[in-house]
Amino acid sequence: MPKFFTIARREYLYNLQRPAYLFSAFGTPLIIIGLWILIFAFLPSDESNVDFSRLGVVNNAGSLTLPATDTLTTSDEEDAIQYTVVLYEDESSAQAALDAFDGETLTDDAITAYFVIPADYRETGRVDVVSYDAVSPDVRAVFNEYLLSTLSAELEIVFPIDRLLSPVEDLTVLATDSGRETTRAALPVIVLIPLFFAITFWIALQTTGSFMVNGLVQEKSNRIIEIIATTASPLQIMLGKILGLGALGLTQVTVWGVVAVLALLVAPQIEFFSALAGVAIPFDVIFIGFLFFLFGYFFFASMLAAVGVLAGSEQQGNQYTVFVTMPGYFLVIFSVAQFIEDPNGTLPMVLSFLPITSPMAMIVRVGFASVPLWQIAASIGVLLFSTVVVAWAGAKIFRWGLLMYGKTFTPRDLIAVIFGNQEMGTTVSQDVKQNKEATA
Amino acid sequence: MNNRDAAIVVNHIEKSYGKFRAVDDLSFDVYAGEIFAMLGPNGAGKSTTIRMILDIMRPDKGTIDILGGPITDAKKDRIGYLPEERGLYKDVKIIDMMVYLGTLKGMSQKQARTKAMDLLNRVDLGEQAEKKAKELSKGMQQKVQFAVTVMHEPALIIIDEPFSGLDPVNTLLIKDMILDLRDQGTAVIMSTHQMYQIEEMADRLLMISHGQQALYGPVDEVRNQHALHAVVVEGEGDWSALPGITRVQDDRNRKGAKVLYMAPDVTSNDILAAIAANPAVTVQRFEEAVPSLNDIFIKVAGEDPYTSQEQDHSVSAAAVPEVANA
């Protein structure tokens, strides 16, 4: 078995069971789902459970002629409720019917609310509602429709009432550039998916990046690295760590992706998420997202491996990690407005080509607009080329710094290491130098 | 030595850091089935040499053959290395860490687990296998580190200060294990400042000073080469009155003992006869003045013995007056 594979497997299995990872990979999505459920669990509590299927109306407006009874059905197809509206002669008879409701079963002579149309209704449009229970928006909508049918009959309108109520009922946006069909309700979701991907990428990178850096700092401080470095070459160690932690990050992104897809599949079945019904799962975005995650990860991981061997402490390691990963993240997050406004504008375009931002920027662009295939290919090309360059330089620094403890380095040192032909640096050479200085 | 197969052939290696030459034209061989001691003052080039053997760095000049040729990745699996600065994963179970390091050396998971448990039992740590390193005492950790070094049954082990931090009981335990490995044909390179351990265990030694070979050969031979033309005595009387004695000096290594330097044509038998013939002196102890490795080390390294940091518990009784007088 190649040594990098043994190292990769160890990095993967060891970090997989760490609480920090479990929380990041599974805890976060669970918390998000939990929050959703909580939010939606509290929303329905606003609605009373009272049966409002029988309503009364008292017509004091002489100009209006209302039917003695009318039945209406809510437009909601799945849980359609049939409402009966009964006309009462005066408020006292309506009140009697209201009082006849025992609060539980609605008999044929009882109602749960009655509307009073005043004499000046035609001028003011005012209607009063009397009920012992909170009147839900649904009930108001039903009454609205009831009045509309009457009014439209008077106006002899031939169009269905629904069209008058909502001239544009189902707005299908055929985005001219992405070709992705979307409904108005689904639009926020379409915007959220690429952002979700970008943020997932960043969280996975932060998690695995800090494992990489802290793992190296620990192995150096406990000197296990001495044993590993005399068994496997620096390149194998670096490759093993990058692959193992990459698989870890990929596991995390996969978990999140599966949860997201499941959410999109399951959510529409739940009434409160019905808005998501119009969302087609953007598999192309997901595919490109994975592609950019992979290449982007290798780019950053090569840098973080180099950073890890240079860090003297975990604290320093975390600072370096932030220094490597943050600029790209902030550049994308701060320009989200531009991405939404004009996904193919100059700034989003530039950011989707810069290797430090492209894994996030390109996925956001692809989600918001149609990006020419050549741009996606070119961006991946730039990212791959940069990854090769960074991995080459990172490997040199990794080799140089692997067995060096407590040495401070200058950018000049690093340039010398990258472009020179430095072999593994060691603290031995430091010892010898000190010895030489002492004896000189 | 059971076997004269060369495990390591070092051939005129050189290594410089900038203008400073850390290792200068060094050559030596290490054989299978021997304990080869490597000693020398701090900064003499021992660690640099070990790192070149381990392929962490390459010599500027010269060649190093490991197990019959240049080092390869596969050969690294046949080397066990106990670095001077060492440690363990703090929050990983001992057995898991050993299995990982074993598989990294090419063992299967199962082999590594079995062998690790064997070794842990041998060093009385079988019950600690499921514990984490941070729960073990320093001495226990040292034993685990030694077990890690030998668990993959290497043909060559390089151990740097194997006894540091161990109590006498555990020192004996590890020492027996090293001797067993030697008897099984393992080539052992041991770097240590504990000279008496070298005297007790090592077959041959190499002393490096200023990057160069200062002493090289079988331990007994090296000591005999530095034998003084003198005897060490303990007893009463005026030693300088004996015929054939040129100088009398206190033995630094043994309180009350004297070092008697003999004239060139005088032998220790002559002195013994003279003592027997002289009723004015009584002797309780009489022996050839063979210097301890410690004395030789100090003499060769040219350090002042009275300010030297080296701790020694030499069992040999002899002085090196040239140094003592310096």
Keywords:
heterodimer; A: 440 residues; alpha/beta; D-Maltodextrin-Binding Protein, domain 2; 2 domains; five-stranded mixed beta sheet; two-stranded antiparallel sheet; 7 strands; 8% strand; B: 326 residues; Rossmann fold; Alpha-Beta Plaits; six-stranded mixed beta sheet; four-stranded antiparallel beta sheet; globular; disordered C terminus
Would you kindly provide a written description of the structure presented here, covering whatever features stand out?
The complex is a heterodimer of chains A (about 450) and B (about 325). Chain A is an alpha/beta fold. Chain A folds into 2 domains: about 55-165, D-Maltodextrin-Binding Protein, domain 2 (3-Layer(aba) Sandwich); about 175-440, no CATH class. Helices cover about 60% and strands about 10% of the residues of chain A. In chain A, a hairpin with an 8-residue loop joins strand 2 and strand 3 (about 80-90). Chain B has about 325 residues and is an alpha/beta fold. Chain B has 2 domains: about 5-225, P-loop containing nucleotide triphosphate hydrolases (Rossmann fold, 3-Layer(aba) Sandwich); about 225-315, Alpha-Beta Plaits (2-Layer Sandwich). The two termini of chain B are about 40 Å apart. The interface of A and B includes residues 3, 14, 423, 424 and 435 of A.
In short:
The complex is a heterodimer of chains A (440) and B (326). By secondary structure, chain A is of the alpha/beta class.
Task: Summarize the main sheet of chain B.
Answer: 6 strands, mixed
Mean pLDDT of chain A: 79
The backbone outline of chain A, from C-alpha atoms, is elongated
Structural domains of chain A: how many: 2
Radius of gyration of chain A equals: 33 Å
Determine the structural class of chain B based on helices, strands and strand pairing.
alpha/beta
Distance, first to last CA of chain A: 49 Å
| CATH class category name of the largest domain in chain B | Alpha Beta
The helix count of chain A comes to 17
- Computed Rg of chain B: 23 Å
How many strand elements of chain A? 7
Query: Which shape of chain B, going by the Cα principal axes?
Result: globular
Which pair has the most extensive contact?
A-B, 32 and 34 residues
**Order of helix and strand elements from N to C terminus of chain A:** HHEEEHEHEHHEEHHHHHHHHHHH
Report, as a whole number of angstroms, the end-to-end distance of chain B.
39 Å
Order of helices and strands of chain B: EEEHEHEHHHEHEHEEHEEEHEHH
Arithmetic mean of pLDDT of chain B: 86
Strand order of the largest sheet of chain A: 2-3-1-4-5
Structural class of chain A: alpha/beta
Which fold name fills CATH's third level, the topology of the largest domain in chain B? Rossmann fold
Which second-level CATH architecture of the largest domain in chain B applies? 3-Layer(aba) Sandwich
